[in-house]
Every structure is written in C-alpha cells, then in structure tokens.
C-alpha cells in the first residue's frame, strides 16, 4: 500500500480525473466527485464560529495528517458543511446528544483540556501536545467541564470516524490507494482474486523499470 503521507503514493497521478472523463462513471457520481475535486480549504464557515472551526481544523490535521499535500483535503470544512445542512447517518449513540451539540461541546472540551494542561487553546499547542490532548480524550482522561456533559471517548470515536470518512470520500485520497470503485457504470468483468480491469491503476515500479 502506498504511504498515506505521500500524496503521490505509488499509483500514477491523474488516474481519477482520467477515469471521470470516461463512460465508466455514471453522471451523478461524476458530478459529485468533480465537485469535491474543485473544493478548496478556504470555505467560509457555515455552522461553526471561527474559534470552533480553528480548533476543529487543528484536530483534523492531527487525526488525518497531510504534510505532503500542497492543497490539503478540507476535512474540517466538510464537517462544517454537513452540520450546516443538518444531515447525518440517521442514528446516534444514546449517550451522545445530537451532532451539532456534540461537536460544539467536544471542541470546547479540546480547548478546555489544552488550557488545563498547557495554558492555551488547542490550536496554539504544538503537534506533540495536541496529540497528548487527543489521547487523553480517547482514553476518557481529559480534564474539563465539557467531558461531564458528553463521554470523551465517544466524541473522539465519532470525530475520528468522520475525519476518515470525509478524507477517503475524496477522489484524490481514493487515488492514493488505487481505488476506482467510483467507476460505477455496468461492465466490471475481472472480478476474480488478483485480477484487474484495464481501468484499474497498477502500482508503479519503485525501480522505474
């Protein structure tokens, strides 16, 4: 598998864009993925205020690092837009409030814990301290009044899952791992173990051969 820290990965760049220009992808899927390709991380917040969105961006950057990507996939912006649209997966844990409240409380909790431990907001901390705060939240050992209102480990679980979902829902992240399941038009034939369709990218030869 290609290194997720390397946006070039081990698969040829441009395979997703090339695939979207073919009849192998249905129009609704093509339109959705092209919209994601055109997004930038400069979207104005729609649900969060600037403080909360800044905290969310810092948390997302630690949970799904993108150090080699010139234009990072805007995971936090995707979460902001989902909450603004009041959409979701249709269920929640009985220990958690509705998503909007859970995020507002949890992000405030990250700042509370950071201040209790290190005297500053979460986004002001270095990467190591941010990771320590997130680990405390994951383990249910985070300081702060917010964690008396929502279970810290459950918030961490929900945040991590949503970060991963939005990241790997993006065409460029899918390209990194050689995924072409967005080619949803009929016509798949090579369905046996180890077989590849012509549309599927091949791992690049690291020796250049």
A few lines on this structure:
With 209 residues, this protein is mainly alpha-helical.
Architecture overview:
- By secondary structure, the protein is mostly helical.
- The protein is built from eight helices and no strands.
- The chain has one domain.
- The protein has helices spanning 15-20, 27-38, 50-63, 75-85, 99-118, 127-138, 152-168, 171-176.
- Helix 5 packs across helix 6.
- The relative contact order is 0.18.
Radius of gyration: 19 Å
Query: What is the number of helical segments per DSSP (H or I, 4+ residues)?
Result: 8
Total E-strand runs:
0
Major beta sheet, specifics? none
Q: Low-confidence parts, pLDDT < 50 over ≥5 residues? A: 1-5
What is the helical fraction, as a range of percent? Answer: 40-55%
Beta-strand percent range: under 5%
- Tally of separate domains: 1
How does the overall form come out from the CA principal axes? elongated
Structural class: mainly alpha
Rounded to the nearest angstrom, the distance between the terminal CA atoms is: 19 Å
Mean pLDDT: 87
